[in-house]
Amino acid sequence: MATSSRRSSADQPLRVLIGADTFAPEINGAASFIARLAAGLVQRGHDVHIMAPSYDGFIGTREEVHEGERMTLHRVRSWRWYPHPTFRFLLPWRIKAESAKLLDRIEPDVIHFQSHIVVGRGLTIEGEKRGIRLIGTNHFMPENILDHAIIIPPFLVRWAIRRAWAAADRSFRRAERVTTPTKKAAEYLEANTSVRGVLAISCGIDAHNYTPSFEPRSANRIVFLGRVVEEKQIDKLIRAVGKLDPALDARLEILGSGDQEHRLKSLTHQLGLDDRVSFAGKVSEDYLRSTLTAAKVFAMPSIAELQSISTMEAMASGLPVVAANAMALPHLVHDGENGYLFAKGDVDDLAEKLTRVLTMEPAQYEAFQRESLSIVEAHDIQRTLDTFESLYRGEEPAARP
């Protein structure tokens, strides 16, 4: 493991290189986290560089603005993976040379790689050679990649998953410290690799950007926010809405875009729910926040969340949450306190839990709202930044409640 760093003074700015296989304009949890992390580091006076795929044909270095802050992007040539509408990939056999060239040019104090797949592999190999401190964060679930992004014969799936985890193991073992967003995700990574001592560090959000409302709701609005892809299980949510008592006059709004949008619209039409389910697509931040503020309940049926930033955004908006009892969602949704967990994939259970929230007495509903706000306080982005700054300097982060 690499352990050296060129600068260690607690008050001296660092030059941080973040390596990413996915970044803006791609929309997903990892890309959002990287942008928030980078912007927060810039605000604290650090010199932030990001190595990421090119999405618009530009190859090279330029300044870009993300989350309202200016930072240096090193865009690398990428190719579209045609089975997926937006996924881009870098050439594995070129990444070491690309990484070596960039590291020699910018001489970072620390490399924080967000994926082992291509960029992380190149940066960890070349960074280790140069004695640069390596910090790794895992957002990766190979089962999702293989099920939903890559065409592979079913009989090869288990073999491919083992190979994917073996590759992850090689890159993360080079890191001085490895992190994931939640304890569940840390256990998941340790169970599938030889990496130990994985730290659970929340991706974090700025709760001040969201506006909770304790005014009585005028409508039973259910909201989903996220990528419209298969692992999110949005079809289960649509079917559950179809099972709700019509007297509730519930409406579901789906915020986000993805490769399943056409299929889900067809399902909505087949179920006769065109007047009860709407697809907003990619929306502005203002629209997103106002929609969360006005909603009655947030629904997250996904079975593959290592944390779920969108669920935290809903909680920061003061919403009760109905979520699948899967992966890391129980860390955010405390059953019977700020929402309900339903058996993953169980449409009837999901409908029943939504009904509970939609028919709550006002006092209980407000108690759920306030508990969501209380739980999400632990995920403040400033705590996340404090922790990563400590890791970047080779220090042990302060214990968090």
TrEMBL record:
Signal peptide: none annotated. Residues 27-207 form the Glycosyltransferase subfamily 4-like N-terminal domain. GO terms for molecular function: glycosyltransferase activity. The keyword DNA-binding does not apply. Transmembrane segments: none annotated. Residues 218-364 form the Glycosyl transferase family domain. Gene3D superfamilies: Glycogen Phosphorylase B. It holds the Pfam family Glycos_transf_1. Keywords: Glycosyltransferase, Transferase. SUPFAM superfamilies: UDP-Glycosyltransferase/glycogen phosphorylase (SSF53756). It comes from the Bacteria. The keyword Transferase applies. This is D-inositol 3-phosphate glycosyltransferase.
